[in-house]
Amino acid sequence: MDARSTVPEYEIDEPSAGFSPIVLFRALSDELRLITLLLIRRERELCVCELTEAFEVSQPKVSRHLAILRDTGLVATERRGQWVYYSINPDLPAWVLRVLDETAAHNEALIQSPLAKLGALAERSAPRCS
């Protein structure tokens, strides 16, 4: 164990099932990233424009957080025209999916407000991302 850390080195150096718990919890430590991931999990896929509306924050802020989720391997992307859609990475280990499932099951209040805003966006006659 490193004298500067209370975490045994093997927990940092040996990722579990190809995905490090340190990376996962760092990525989820930001509220916007956590809620974004839970929303994407629930809705199957979302675009930056939808998340911007759901959170009422700027597009660059949402994009910056999505880039972190993408770079850590938590989300997959698909480009459709000028828009990029984000979904849960289908190659995530089962233990990561269980963490997301448990977090969502016990913290539904986290996504209630942004989910309502997404619902209102879906009810508009214009397409979601145009």
Describe the protein in words:
The chain has about 130 residues and is mainly alpha-helical. The protein has one domain (about 10-115): Arc Repressor Mutant, subunit A (Orthogonal Bundle). The chain is about 60% helix and about 10% strand. The protein contains seven helices and three strands. It has helices spanning about 10-15, 20-30, 30-45, 50-55, 60-70, 95-105, 110-125; strands at about 45, 75-80, 85-90. The chain has a three-stranded antiparallel beta sheet with strand order 1-3-2. A hairpin with a 2-residue loop joins strand 2 (about 75-80) and strand 3. The protein is globular. Residues about 1-15 have low confidence and may be disordered. Pfam families: HTH_5. Binds arsenite and regulates the expression of arsenic efflux pumps. In vitro, also binds antimony and bismuth, but not arsenate. Keywords: Arsenical resistance, DNA-binding, Metal-binding, Metal-thiolate cluster, Transcription, Transcription regulation.
